[in-house]
Amino acid sequence: MFQDITIEECSKLRKQGELVLIDVRSPSEYNEASIPGSLNIPIFNDQERAEIGTLYKQVSVQAAKERGLEIVSAKLPTFIKTFAGISENKAVFCWRGGMRSKTTATVLSLMGIRVYRITGGYRAYRQYVVERLNDICYEPQSFIIHGNTGSGKTAILHKMKQNGHPVLDLEGLAGHRGSIFGGIGLKAHNQKTFDSLLLDNIHENEKFSYVLFEAESRRIGNITVPDLMMELRAKGHHISLEMTLEARVNQIIEDYKPWENIDECMRSFRKIKSRIHTPVAAEIEACLISEKYHAAVELLLTYYYDPRYSHSTSEHDEQISSIVRAANTAEATIKIEQIVNSLMERKSMEQ
């Protein structure tokens, strides 16, 4: 017989890399939000789930069960074979730990395939994430990187992470860069996915006494950054990154690849067109149409993003602790790394 496992027990095994999680909900439910790293082996596809739901509401519970059994019976051989191909310890879950995960675990148990079933399903996991983000004691020394649009802050964070430093890439977790153009070329995450990924990243970094992240506002696209991160920002060591306009333009071109996403770029630009002085807006649009992307980006930075950045920084009562001037992200990474190492060494000696 299968064994039930709580979210807390499941989280502990996940941290140790000893458990493969399998979401047996429909593909659309899985794509909307799931436990990070889980596989999707649906017991019903979207159409089947809708059919059973209609029977449940309009006919009877029994009719829905009978149709569900009929559907499952037809796909059992393939379903079981898929699970059998996963050698690691497995835990299954559905929306609330109900019939779908129970049926899956029971059938697999009868076939000699041992699995856990997560008590409360995804709903219990979501509640766990929300509570943990509210209650977790996470107070590392934080380093917050500031800089005008195009300064390469994300690229620097990625390089710092490659070098072994603990990083929280909030834009990466959100699947959005934060600006009106921020979703171009990316898959935006919803709040549920962002929160789950953030909690996982915090757990991964708990062994470090410090963490780095970008100076984000309260909102990134449609995501709301939790109080935990805003508190870390308020208490942190603030690093202001200063790059040349040319370097910033090149960084934006590299990040956004406008030639691959020109329709999205035009749609995004037209959302802010009315906020830019009319002759300048017309010139930006003409540059985008004629594929003069460097000129378009330089105008956007000079007449739109830089003034907005100056205004937004004036709203935060934050003392800049260090200023880094660099010609490119490689040079900036080295200088920021020196600042981090120096401060952490000094703090270590003081303890």
Task: Give a short synopsis of this structure.
With about 350 residues, the chain is an alpha/beta fold. Helices cover about 55% and strands about 15% of the residues.
Largest sheet, in brief, is: 5 strands, parallel
**Average residue-wise pLDDT:** 93
Distance between the termini: 53 Å
Describe the strand arrangement of the main beta sheet, using strand numbers. 1-5-4-2-3
Q: What quaternary form is this?
A: single chain
Give me the count of strands.
12
Percent of residues in beta strands: 5-15%
List SSEs in N-to-C order. Answer: EHEHEHHEHEHEHEHHEEEHEHHHHEH
Spans of at least 5 consecutive residues whose pLDDT stays below 50 are none
Q: What is the 3D form?
A: globular
Total helical elements:
15
Radius of gyration: 25 Å
Based on secondary structure, the structural category is alpha/beta
**Share of helical residues:** 55-70%
Characterization of this structure:
With 351 residues, the chain is of the alpha/beta class. 56% of the residues lie in helices and 14% in strands. The chain contains 15 helices and twelve strands. It has helices at residues 7-15, 27-32, 46-58, 61-84, 99-110, 121-135, 153-162, 170-174, 191-205, 227-235, 245-256, 262-272, 278-289, 293-314, 329-350; strands at residues 3-5, 20-23, 39-40, 90-93, 116-118, 141-147, 167-168, 210-214, 219-220, 223-224, 237-243, 320-326. The strands form three sheets. It has a five-stranded parallel sheet. Strands 7-8-6-11-12 form a five-stranded parallel sheet, with helices on both faces. The protein has a two-stranded antiparallel sheet with strand order 9-10. Helix 5 links the parallel strand 4 (90-93) and strand 5 (116-118). Helix 3 runs antiparallel to helix 4 and helix 7 (153-162) crosses helix 15. It is globular, with a radius of gyration of 25 Å. It starts with a strand and ends with a helix.
